Amino acid sequence: MIVVTGAAGFISSCLVSRLNQANFNDIVVVDNFSVAKKENNLKGKKVKEFVDRDTFFEWLDKNYEEVEFIFHLGARTDTTEFNKDVFDLLNLNYSKKVWNACCEYQIPLVYASSAATYGSGTLGYNDDESIIPLLKPLNPYGDSKNDFDIWALEQTAKPFFWAGLKFFNVYGPNEYHKGKMASVIFHAYNQIKEKGSMKLFRSHHPDFADGEQMRDFVYVKDVVDVCMFLMQHRKNSGIYNLGSGKARTFMALALNTFEAMGVEPNIEFMDTPENLRDNYQYFTEANMNKLRSIGYDKPFYTLEEGVKDYVQNYLMPAEYIN
């Protein structure tokens, strides 16, 4: 059996699909299972068992001998949430329990970290584990992810294989439930569909023109392919960046969305909310050399390829097909 936590969410549900495509059907999905996410994101998936996240460790104590691998992708991901207790409970302490269980039962583990750990990027975006204790995230979400990375590296007891993945700006199908935390592509599509235009944040940094803020946008299909590779690789434990390796502008993202929809571009700018300005990242770009060095050689989707596939094959049809 393969366990996927946060399984009704965005990346995890896409991973369940990818596992099914590879004929892995004994999948145990763990989540709090809100009705909407379960009915939409897990609809049609081949799943062995649904386990509530609050009873997962009791379930694991009884079934660990059958568990081959754990993908721990469940987390609170709201970067605008500032209640540290929420992140301590769901991101830090729950992840520690998963780690300790994997150590006790010798189960290999892949877990979700985040590029939010890099903060403003003053130390760069290299997944060198020696700089992780020096990173200064810009919000409690990033702190929670970095705190766990630091804790994991400090442990003497480790799963025989483990990997933490610093996800950059992931986009793709099954993110509709994320609200304001969904990708800019998702929001752009809906704005264009409704109004024929879309809005981007105006730059408040002298080095960046409006719309020229840059992010490493990575398509979720690449993310789950890397997860599959690590499950099959099971060596070279450590913390890895997971982005496309190429920063692109929000303007390029917007123009590609218009093109994929067959609509003439109409872009307006609005001020970045004042409460976000001090914590706004103007540039992120994953250094992907570490993952490449252990044998992952599949090319990543370009922004053009990913946006076209997402918009035309998932957002524009009446129903998601994944």
Structure write-up:
By secondary structure, the chain is α/β, with parallel strands linked by helices. It has a domain at 2-168 and 217-243 and 286-300: Rossmann fold. The chain has helices spanning 10-21, 35-41, 56-63, 84-105, 140-154, 184-195, 220-233, 250-261, 274-277, 289-293, 303-315; strands at 2-5, 27-31, 49-52, 69-72, 109-114, 162-167, 169-171, 198-201, 214-215, 217-219, 238-242, 248-249, 267-270. The chain has a 7-stranded parallel sheet with strand order 3-2-1-4-5-6-11, sandwiched between helices. The protein has a two-stranded parallel ribbon with strand order 7-10. Strands 8-13 form a two-stranded parallel sheet. The radius of gyration is 19 Å and the shape is globular. The two termini are 22 Å apart. The mean pLDDT is 92.
Q: What is the fold named in CATH at topology level of the domain at 2-168 and 217-243 and 286-300?
A: Rossmann fold
- Which class of secondary structure composition applies to the elements? alpha/beta
Number of helices: 11
Q: What is the percent of helical residues?
A: 25-40%
